[in-house]
Design brief:
The structure is a single chain. The protein is an all-alpha fold. It has 2 domains: 2-239, no CATH class; 258-316. Helix content is 88%, strand content 0%. The chain starts with a helix and ends with a helix.
Length: 317
């Protein structure tokens, strides 16, 4: 009996070790989506009144948890009955990341007026007393939850792709762990980010005319906008790196080409290993940018075709 218990405990410890190792790998691979998820949700939640920021974050957090309750079992069922579909979904996810990253960059240069119009809409909603802020909040929450659903699906697919060759119990525990960690970390950080300006104002008000508190509060207020911009930039870059890395392992010929490029670099003395990592990231990023750029006209063409066909269908009816 004692021997059986020890064997069971040893098996449990082995599984937990595997889960911990797989979770670390999955966390690294989903870092790009996490950065984008964080930036997007912080941007989505911003714009509501200060006293409503945390309730809105809490509402989106609950919506994100519901998304995970749908996505995690669906992904695990897929892994159990059709594991061959994980790689195609993973490739689609990589394409989505590359497209989304390129579309973000393109919108900054090609459609700056749309971004300005969205900011003005938020400011007008806050200043206009006729605007129903309850409805405005609900729209913000729904938009954030929709965004979270897409990004959560991507995180779970990447995590599942990391453990697709592992035992089913390891797959289950790793995906569940990643889903829980990502949800808690993202919305915990979002809550902290949206309250940074209030922290800065509090320090200024309590610091008097001079002193370290006032200085720190002013620094926080000045730093907060740059933090949001920094998160957006880092999140976008990470999307190309992660998306390109996924595609690099799935597109025939790309792994061999990358190996051919990286081999001479790895032979360099002392700094070869560091340069190899940096060069590999650069190659993944370049591949991600190329794929994202190629997908822009494809998506635009598909959208145009749908818009052309829809009116004709209505006319026929």
């Amino acid at each position: 009996m004692a021997t059986s218990l020890l064997v069971l405990l040893d098996d449990i410890a082995t599984v937990l070790d595997d889960v911990a190792a797989m979770t670390k790998v999955a966390a690294v691979r989903t870092a790009g989506v996490l950065g984008d998820d964080l930036a997007l949700n912080a941007e989505q939640v911003s714009g509501v009144r200060a006293d409503r920021e945390l309730p809105v974050v809490w509402a989106v957090f609950k919506g994100s948890a519901r998304n995970k309750l749908i996505l995690v079992p669906s992904a695990l069922v897929l892994a159990a009955i059709a594991p061959w579909m994980i790689t195609p979904f993973l490739m689609l996810g990589g394409c989505y990341l590359c497209y989304e990253g390129f579309e973000k960059i393109a919108s900054v240069f090609l459609h700056p007026e749309e971004r300005l119009a969205e900011k003005n809409k938020v400011l007008s909603a806050r200043r206009d007393p006729k605007v129903d802020m309850v409805t405005f909040e609900k729209e913000k929450i729904k938009g954030a939850i929709r965004t979270d659903f897409v990004l959560s699906a991507e995180i779970i697919v990447i995590a599942l792709g990391t453990v697709q060759d592992a035992a089913l119990i390891t797959q289950m525990l790793t995906v569940i762990t990643i889903a829980a960690l990502m949800t808690i970390s993202v919305y915990g950080l979002v809550a902290a980010i949206v309250r940074l300006d209030d922290l800065g104002l509090h320090l200024i008000d309590s610091g008097g005319d001079s002193g370290s508190k006032k200085w720190l509060g002013e620094q926080i207020l000045g730093f907060a906008p740059y933090l949001m911009k920094g998160l957006t930039i880092v999140g976008t870059a990470a999307m190309f790196l992660v998306g390109g890395g996924i595609l690099a392992h799935g597109i025939p010929g790309i792994p061999g080409l990358f190996e051919l490029i990286l081999h001479p670099i790895s032979e360099l003395a002392s700094i070869g290993s560091v340069l190899t990592i940096l060069a590999s990231m650069l190659l993944n990023g370049v591949l991600g940018i190329i794929v994202g750029g190629l997908l822009i006209p494809v998506v635009f063409g598909a959208s145009w075709l749908v818009s052309v066909l829809r009116p004709s269908k209505k006319t026929e009816l």
